[in-house]
Amino acid sequence: MSKTRWLNDEEQRAWRAWVDLNAKLSARLNRGLQGTGLSLSDYEILVALTDDDVTDHSLRMYELGERLQWEKSRVSKQVTRMAARGLVERRDCADDRRGAFVELTEEGMAAIKAAAPSHVELVRTLFFEGLSPDEVAGLARFSNAVLARLADESGQG
User: Fold this and answer.
1) In CA terms, which of 46, 55, 67, 116 is 20 to 30 Å from 106?
2) What is the pLDDT averaged over residues 116-135?
């Protein structure tokens, strides 16, 4: 039986600050998008569909879920809500009866183009303001190291 390695006081403070930061930042970014008619979940899907490596602004449902690290049911429900508002379309996959594509519509493209400037400015203000280039680089190294451990742990490395 292995012995639990409890967090020391400094680790505990850092961990709780990280959890609190993540929750408050997500909530604030969501509120920041309210005037655009998009939720943070809408925005995340629109960003995924407009990434440079996405051909024709279309992804398989499972690919979208993998990119966002969302459960299949969450992707399906969010896409259904967005399709009802005309932001995306769901298309059947010709070579897989169970599969489907999510495709960005003109309305979806217009929505992300309208929302992106204020969203990016809010991210800059809340997250990057006051950080030096070295601190930003350190944050990137830290984030990538944790992401690598997560990938190794899940076998996706």
Assistant:
1) 67
2) 96
Q: Is residue 33 part of a domain?
A: yes
Instruction: Quote the CA–CA distance of 22 and 18 in Å, as a whole number.
Output: 6
**Does residue 157 belong to any structural domain of this protein?**
no
Task: Enter the tokens of residue 64.
Answer: 């979208």
**Tokens 């920041």 map to which residue?**
32
Q: Where are the beta strands (DSSP E) in the chain?
A: 58-60, 88-93, 96-104
- Kindly tell me if the per-residue pLDDT of 157 is higher than 60: no
Q: Mean pLDDT over residues 72-99, rounded?
A: 89
Range of the domain at 32: 11-114
CATH number at residue 54: 1.10.10.10
**Is the confidence at residue 93, as pLDDT, over 90?**
no
Question: Rounded to whole angstroms, how far apart are CA atoms 119 and 26?
Answer: 12
From its phi and psi, is residue 155 left (phi > 0), alpha (psi between -120 and 50) or beta? left
CB 31 within 8 A of CB 20: no
pLDDT digits (tens, 9 = 90+) for 25-49: 999 999 999 999 999 999 999 999 9
> Which phi and psi (to 5°) does residue 21 adopt?
-60, -45
Residue 84, pLDDT above cutoff 80: yes
Task: Tell me if 32 sits within 8 A of 122, measured CB to CB.
Answer: yes
